[in-house]
Amino acid sequence: MTNTLSPPAFELFAFWRTSATYRVRVALNLKGLTAHERIINLDLGEQRSPEFLKINPLGAIPALVDPGHAPLTQSMAILEYLDEFQPTPPLLPTDLHGRARVRSLAAMLGADTHPLITPRVKKYLASNAAFDDAAWRAWQIQWLGTGLAAVEQRLATEKETGRFCHGDTPTMADILLSSIVVMTRVFKITVPDIPTIDRIMQACDAHAAFAKAEPYRQAGAPA
Fold first, then answer.
1. How far is residue 186's CA from residue 219's CA, in Å, rounded to a whole number?
2. What is the separation, in whole angstroms, between the first and last Cα of the chain?
């Protein structure tokens, strides 16, 4: 049943360019929900402040606060929460296999690809493996390319793929896919030979909920 109560005063701890924050913004936009954003400047290390570590001990964003409840962290969990809070439009298909497929595609991107390119991985490699900027860029290209190529193979060969990753309406898989692709744009990395992903991204880019969440449109983004 769709929630008919007044929307809660969600609070979103966010930063303009993060892939995971982008996902939550898209979901909020799709659901017609809003959240007051509190900017955590990753470039200044604000995610490691004692105040924020009380919100998320891992020092990662986003975090979503629904008044009266403990903060929610991990973008995938937040997407599931928003989908159950406001079931329309749904982020998951109605059938059992379809839901599993969408979650699987999303996990390939959110669990297998994105964690390898996060700032804390960059910091560790720079401090402990002598990575310079060139080595870090090569690392990004390797793992973004590997992840997107694997997703492309599935999308190009599975019959459930439609205008979007699953059928003709956006799902959680599209949110995760676009969150990775927009990061390649921020990093100015081109991944070749992903025509199905490129086609789906055209549909996402044309959708208001995705366009509104674009990193360079957010507060704090460089002009």
1. 15
2. 42
